Structure formats: structure tokens, C-alpha cells
Amino acid sequence: MSLYDEGHTVAGWTGTAIGTAGSVALGMGVCGWAPGFPLGIAVSVAALLVTWVLHLAGWGKPPGPRPRDQWALGARDRIVRGGHPGCLGCRLAGRRGPRTAGLPEPVTSTAAAPAATGTPAVSTADSSS
After folding, report:
1. Where are the alpha helices (DSSP H) in the chain?
2. Which of 59, 79, 115, 117 could form an S-S bond across to 10 if both were Cys, CB 3.0 to 4.6 Å?
């Protein structure tokens, strides 16, 4: 077994199998089989859509490595409902996911910003009156 999670998922293997069939049909179109091009393109688009739908249903994986207990082929993704952070497929479906850990949180109050950075607060009121 590999030391890394290479994305061995139901969505990945299903998409690969359907995509391979689409590639074979496109190759046969290059060799002269007339329905090869339209059939190959249709099957390749179907592979993309089936993989995306399976990913959104929890049979795929988020970007990056997963915990080791989720490496099995039949393991469903536990956090897919809200979306995966940094996942294009989830963003296309309107799922944004939680904020990633390395990004700073937005500042909600202007008075809290100088105190958080360690600089003294500067009054913006006009003191000449």
C-alpha cells in the first residue's frame, strides 16, 4: 500500500473507466470509424459529469491527503455537504466549504484592528476645535 492518499475513490475510478471508453471511441474516430468523434466526445463529457456528481455525493475526496482511516476505496467523504476548501468542483456547485486554516480572519471592528497589531489607536476626529 502506498504511503500517500492518491485519491483512490469510487468517483475517481468510475470517471477513469468512462473516460477511457471515451478515449477509445475518439481513437477509433481517428482511425476512420465515423461515429467515433461524436461518441467519444459525448462519453468524455459524461465521464466528467459522472465524476463530478459522484464527488458531490461524497464518493470523491477533497484536495490533498485524507486521514488514513478514509483511504479505503469505499470510504465516503464526511465533510462534502458544505464543500471542500480550495475545491474547484465544490465551488462550481456553489459549495464554498469552511475557511482554510492559514488565512487571516477578516477584521470586523476598526477599533480592534490597531489593538490586534500592537500599534496605538489613532483618533480620526478633528481635534482643532
Report:
1. 10-30, 36-54, 88-92, 112-117
2. 59
